[in-house]
Design brief:
Radius of gyration: 14 Å
Number of helices: 0
Strand content: over 45%
Helix content: under 10%
Length: 116
């Protein structure tokens, strides 16, 4: 069964860094874009960052200059380096993959908590 698995969430102090990783199963083929959304308690799920097969990236304004998305196309994997973390970055982070054809795949989510 096609799936995405996330790694790297946790608790970090304000100003700290975390790196999230997401690996897709081999059964997910022809992925065009991969990225991350996040959802804070009581809020909607919002896009954080996306990267295409060609390396084009897009970021939410709130994370520009602090977060960097990267991708290994050969391994169906994507990472999110998060620096200068703020309490408002606290959320469950979800990895996703968009195949050229077919539905979007989602990971199960990983908790990121920024607190002193």
């Amino acid at each position: 069964q096609a799936q995405l698995e996330e790694f790297g969430g946790g608790l970090v102090q304000p100003g700290g860094s975390l790196r999230l990783s997401c690996a897709g199963s081999e059964s997910i083929s022809s992925i065009y874009a991969m990225g991350w959304y996040r959802q804070a308690p009581g809020k909607q799920r919002d896009m954080v960052a996306v990267i295409t097969t060609g390396g084009r990236t897009n970021y939410a304004d709130s994370v520009k200059g602090r977060f960097t998305i990267s991708r290994d196309n050969g391994k169906n994997s994507v990472s999110l380096q998060m620096n200068s973390l703020k309490p408002e970055d606290t959320a469950v982070y979800y990895c996703y993959a968009d195949p050229v054809f077919g539905r979007r795949y989602w990971g199960q989510g990983t908790q990121v908590t920024v607190s002193s």
